Amino acid sequence: MYIIAVIVFVLVLVLLLSIMRNIKTLCMTNLKNIEYYIDLNRNYSIYISDTSKPNWKRIIDKDDAYFITDKGKVKKTKIKRYCVVYPSGEILNISHNLLNIPKNAYWIDDNDIQDFKELSESEVILNSQDVLIQIKESKNPQMVYFTTEITNNMNCKLFPIAFGGYIKKDGVYVLDNVINTAYSDVQFINWYNCRNEYLTPGETVSDPNNYGGDDSYWIYIFKTENGDIIKVGKYIDTSL
Questions:
Q1: Distance between CA atoms of 94 and 59, rounded to whole angstroms?
Q2: With contact defined as beta carbons under 8 Å apart, do 124 and 219 qualify?
Q3: The pTM is what?
């Protein structure tokens, strides 16, 4: 009986140590990801919780050991949940697929754009120099992202209309987003951290949290200030 009790004690101890190690690993991974989003210096709202059932607190500052939030200090090494939100309220990233999300945050969803689900080869300019699209390495620690950089080399303002990921089938570009519609102008402005609702001549914007499979295309639809519609695209090769 004594031997059985000892075996049970050892098994429980091993289990507890494993759980504690996993929690520590989770917290350190969360910290690394949070610091990445803070260092981007964009207008994200970053919410954290030091409990498994989220009690969301918005980060407003930090020091060496703590995040300063709207509800007090939280030790950096104790973060169990986090959620990163664009200025629009759309969720950029969340540490778990939770039903409990921060107030006024929302998941990406279909929008009102019903056009641009299919585009012919002839109407899309690949590798345009007027609107330069570049795929670069991302510093995102989750290693599934890349940076998409767009430069307006035209002598006029460019207003985003829609954009998205596409795959090519029988000479036609077919929309292949995580939603059933093209992404909107508001999403472009948020994702690419635009200063205005348009790109000025010579301006470069970027989305450092972009993702998509190889053998696909990112295509952007812009309107010039003269009312012309241009569609430009780039083949995605993430083997950087």
A1: 15
A2: yes
A3: 0.84
Domain ranges of the chain: 2-94, 118-236
How long is the chain? 240
CA 148 to CA 134: how far, in whole Å? 6
- Cβ neighbours for 39, distance < 8 A, ≥ 6 positions apart: none
Alpha carbons 190 and 207: distance in angstroms, whole number? 9
**Do 95 and 48 contact (CB within 8 A), yes or no?**
no
CATH number for the domain formed by residue range(s) 118-236: 2.60.40
Q: What is d(CA 49, CA 164) in angstroms, rounded to the nearest whole number?
A: 32
Task: Determine the Cα–Cα distance for residues 182 and 184; give it in Å rounded to an integer.
Answer: 6
For residue range 12-30, list pLDDT tens digits in order. Answer: 544 544 544 555 566 788 8
